[in-house]
Amino acid sequence: MRTTRILRGPKLSPRRSVRGFTLIEVLLTLLIMSGIMLTMTSILTAARTSRDTIHNIQETQLAGPAILDRIERDLRALTVYDRTRQLQLRIKNKVNLGFDADSLDFVCTTRSLTLHEESDRFVRSSVNEVGYRLRIAPTGDFLELYRREEYGVDDDPFEGGNYLLLHERVRGFDIRCFEKDGPDEEPIDEWGAAKNDEHIGLPARIEITLTLELAPRLVNEQLRIVPTDKLIVVYKRVIRFPEGLRLAENDI
Predict the structure, then answer these.
(1) Average pLDDT, stretch 94-113?
(2) What dihedral do alpha carbons 35, 40, 42, 47 form, nearest 10°?
(3) Which helix (H) or strand (E) holds 71?
(4) Residue 212, exposed/middle/buried by CB under 10 A (0-12, 13-18, 19+)?
(5) 239 near 205, Cβ under 8 Å?
(6) How many other CB atoms sit within 10 Å of the CB of residue 193?
(7) Do 150 and 169 touch, CB atoms closer than 8 A?
(8) Sign of the C-alpha dihedral, residues 212, 213, 218, 223?
(9) What is the mean pLDDT of residues 176-185?
């Protein structure tokens, strides 16, 4: 008797259904991603604002006072030894781009900042010509403040030397002289500027007004730390010359 075998294929499992994301899940994902992006943007904005704040604080608290400290340090070291009264101090009243751009020149015992080559070695001088001048910046919008220094002293102590840039966004450098010290004294704009100037020697005091504009950290970025009218900062310094120094120059 013949037996017939029936071949059966493999068992087929029931088809699994493929299920996608629902609209609520997609919206929830987008909401979470938007929150993350908003948080990251806020963090970056806060970091950028903090950076700009530090930058402007450095300019406000370091640049202006540091420049005036440098000027005062030089003036405190002003020397009248072996100098005629005409060559002790010169202050010229100037205007550039509509801004005060006064100049200041004298001889002082401040050690020179720049090195001078002499006999195959670099040396510094203990007596130098020093001055402060302003020039128009290359952009033509501001003035640049320079410190002039001449190694040693020559026959013309108010000219020549090397120039060191102190600040590139100056909106004013005004110097006023007072022949006598007192609240009711009238200021004098120039001192020893001409050969026949009656105001020569040393005044009782001078008042220096330095106006700087804070430079934005990024050119095309709006700073949020201060209003626009506070981007311009004015610094003032009153410097009185010692009475002993003024009496000494009268004996020359």
Answers:
(1) 93
(2) 170
(3) helix 64-76
(4) buried
(5) yes
(6) 17
(7) no
(8) positive
(9) 90
